[in-house]
Amino acid sequence: MWNIIQSLWSSLALFLSALFFHGMILRSIRENKPKWFINNHQHHIIRYFIGMYYGVLGLYFIWRGLPGEDFGIYTDMLINIIILLNIFSGTGPATIATSMIIIGKLLLGHDPHMQLIYAFFLLSYHFICIQVNTLKISLVKKFILSKLSITPFMLYYLHFKMAIPLQVYTIPKWLLIFTISFVCSLLLYLAARFIDTSNKQIFELRQSSIHDPLTKLANYRHFDTCLRNEYKESIFKQTPLSVIIFDY
Fold it and tell me: Where is the signal peptide (predicted)?
């Protein structure tokens, strides 16, 4: 059990680090390239890169879970990737990450039969999360429904991988595992929601400060910001700067 707890904290810490690193990258892009989140084509490219980013994280979890008994904990982190991407990023990034995870399981796993069953459950769970995400309910309820829907898979899969019999006397152990799993997923959900909400609020505040809320046209602050940036660039490149102002 101590090995499980140790692998739990290491995988949880890595996931949280990946979340905050993801948040910092998006915040930097929102500040330097805000049009990328307005243009649909560029926005889709960003979302697909997010799916690939968490797909690589999933491959790392698969690799870390191969040798020892802590496999179930890392498996739980793969489930969290599918949940969070479906809730916060949408179907496209979640599908990319799920596909990468399934391919990784089939290539890295030792038992082909077990890996096929695992891939089937993962794909089915991804479709369940897609359907849950279409419901007109709060994000918290979507998270809870998505997390509860994985219970049959956990009972089936962890029964073999962690050698826990499905008997009455093992109920306390199962409850402990499910509690740990839910608490970890909840922490990741809260962290992802905080990062997503704060980044969007900062972006909206920045946009409202440089655009008129009624006409959506650029105001004086937008002009001042553009002029300052051009002035800094002209000094850096040692090139002349010309400004033409049309006042209506």
Answer: none
